[in-house]
């Protein structure tokens, strides 16, 4: 898979029977979790818990935690711990480490199985 939108990838999240999609989820190698989704996407869903986080800005916040699945592009969906926090989709190293990910000179993101 090749994304010409650096540093973003298309992602599909399956959570409590819902399918959530984002064509431009941020690839964040500083985030050691699996994936975060906008908090608004999880309204009305039942979390399995919550976690305190230190965000890139240094601010502390908490995120609701869910079990679900994540699919990058056309690759097979994988189990994931999904955090609901903030206002954007962010893919962390918990998912990225399952693939070969090439950040190609700030122009594109290449993902291989």
List keywords for this structure.
three-stranded antiparallel β-sheet, mainly beta, Cathepsin D, subunit A, domain 1, 10 strands, 4% helix, six-stranded mixed β-barrel, 113 residues
Write the layout of secondary structure elements.
Blueprint: E1 2-3, E2 8-15, E3 18-27, E4 35-37, E5 49-54, E6 60-72, E7 78-84, E8 90-91, H1 93-96, E9 100-104, E10 108-112
Parallel strand pairs: 3-8, 4-7
Antiparallel strand pairs: 1-10, 2-3, 2-6, 4-8, 5-6, 6-7, 9-10
User: Globular, elongated, flat, extended or rod-shaped: what is the shape?
Assistant: globular
- Percent helix, as a range, is under 10%
Percent in strands: over 45%
What is the fold named in CATH at topology level? Cathepsin D, subunit A, domain 1
CA-atom Rg in angstroms? 13 Å
Which oligomerization state do the chains in this entry correspond to? single chain
CATH top level class name: Mainly Beta
Tally of alpha and pi helices: 1
Structural class: mainly beta
Q: State the major sheet.
A: 6 strands, mixed, barrel
Number of domains: 1
Mean pLDDT: 96
**Poorly predicted runs:** none
CATH architectural category = Beta Barrel
Strand order of the largest sheet: 2-3-8-4-7-6
> What's the β-strand tally?
10
User: CA-to-CA gap between the ends?
Assistant: 9 Å
Order of helices and strands: EEEEEEEEHEE
CATH homologous superfamily grouping: Acid Proteases
């Amino acid at each position: 898979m090749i994304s010409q939108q650096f540093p973003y990838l298309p992602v599909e999240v399956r959570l409590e029977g819902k399918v959530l999609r984002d064509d431009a989820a941020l690839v964040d190698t500083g985030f050691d979790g699996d994936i975060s989704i906008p908090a608004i996407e999880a309204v009305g869903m039942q979390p399995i818990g919550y976690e305190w986080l230190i965000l890139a800005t240094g601010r502390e916040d908490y995120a609701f935690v869910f079990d679900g699945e994540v699919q990058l592009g056309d690759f097979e969906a994988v189990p994931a711990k999904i955090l609901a926090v903030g206002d954007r989709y962010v893919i962390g190293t918990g998912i990225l480490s399952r693939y070969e990910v090439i950040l190609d000179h700030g122009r594109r993101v290449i993902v291989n199985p």
